[in-house]
Amino acid sequence: MKDKEVSILIVEDEVNVLNSLNSIIGRRYEQVYLANDAQKALNIFRNEDIDLVVTDIRMPGMDGLTMLQKMKSQKPNLRRLVMSAYSESEYFLQAIDLGVDGYIVKPFSKEKLLETIKQSAKSIINERIVEISNIQIAKSEKDLRELNQTKDKFFSIIGHDVKTPVSTIASYSSILVDEFEEMEKEEILQIIKIIRNSSFRAIDLLKNLLEWAKMQTGAISFNPEIINICDIIDEEVDFASNSWAKKNISIEQLSKTDDFVYADKNMLRTVFRNLFSNAIKFTPEKGEIQLSSKILKQDGDFIQISIKDTGVGIPEKALNNLFSIKDKYSTEGTEGEKGTGMGLIFCKEFVDIQGGNIKAESTLGQGSVFSFSLPVAKKE
What we know:
Strands 2-1-3-4-5 form a five-stranded parallel beta sheet, with helices on both faces. The protein has a five-stranded mixed beta sheet with strand order 7-9-10-12-11. The protein has three domains: 3-108, Response regulator (Rossmann fold, 3-Layer(aba) Sandwich), CATH 3.40.50.2300; 140-220, Orthogonal Bundle (Helix Hairpins); 222-380, Heat Shock Protein 90, CATH 3.30.565. Helix content is 52%, strand content 19%. Helix 2 packs parallel to helix 3 (64-74), helix 7 (229-239) crosses helix 9 (265-282) and helix 9 (265-282) runs antiparallel to helix 11. Strand 4, helix 4 (89-98) and strand 5 (102-106) form a beta-alpha-beta unit. The radius of gyration is 35 Å and the shape is elongated. The protein contains eleven helices and twelve strands.
């Protein structure tokens, strides 16, 4: 930010003096406006962002001091310099009472004029720097508060959710140690299954914790490449086949074989796997899941991938905050399947990193549609 970027309005009723001022000041400052009376100056002031006014005091019609008062009322931080002759001491005193920033005596010297303006320009620039710094500091403080709130919320969620499976493991392990000799084989096997499932749940939560920590520190790698959407969908549908086949859910795939995106494969898999596993989890037995992809008409640079189910749906009040850590939404699936409630938060993070968008539509009791967009792979 340089002194010459300051905008200056020169007001002088004597044309020769006005031209002389313009010649001296205009060579050193980029934005100089001229007016030969107070009314014209006020019109310019209303239409332009003026930082400094240099004005004669005695002018026909409205005098310079009255004009400055009007300007100051509209822009309190306006810098003001007045010009007058030695013989006009009464105006000089009025200018002091008005609180002007400087007084230029006529006839003025070029050096004195430029030095006075330079000092005012420096003050203006310093005020701007302080203002910008204050805005940046306020924003940094706000961002830090939000980050700390998010971090606290995340650890609160993880701490609360980890406590349940760990407590279950500890409790049932104690039962095994204390009552093993008296227990039937089936009872032992049932407890071992509970411990195993609780262990898997705790591991998932800890994985989420590590993944979130990587995202917050920028340590997570991002390696975009050209990917065929259909291939990813096929692989993920096959990967989850035990889950959807167990519930007799029918899978309809409508994605096109020539839909290619430019994305990070691991992130894409994570997003699709989370959304697809949720669709399976919340779709009842013999339900349907439809998978599709299409180029967005309003923005041909993105492909939208959608997962539509005939599941239980999501309450309207929870729909707007599905992807926010501040309002984590978690509920059991149709067969009691549990989740960490963090999957959708990671989905949003991964889609955002790649410049895309993610959204959800749902009708309670009828099903949901989750869609996310990724950049189209540019053809060579």
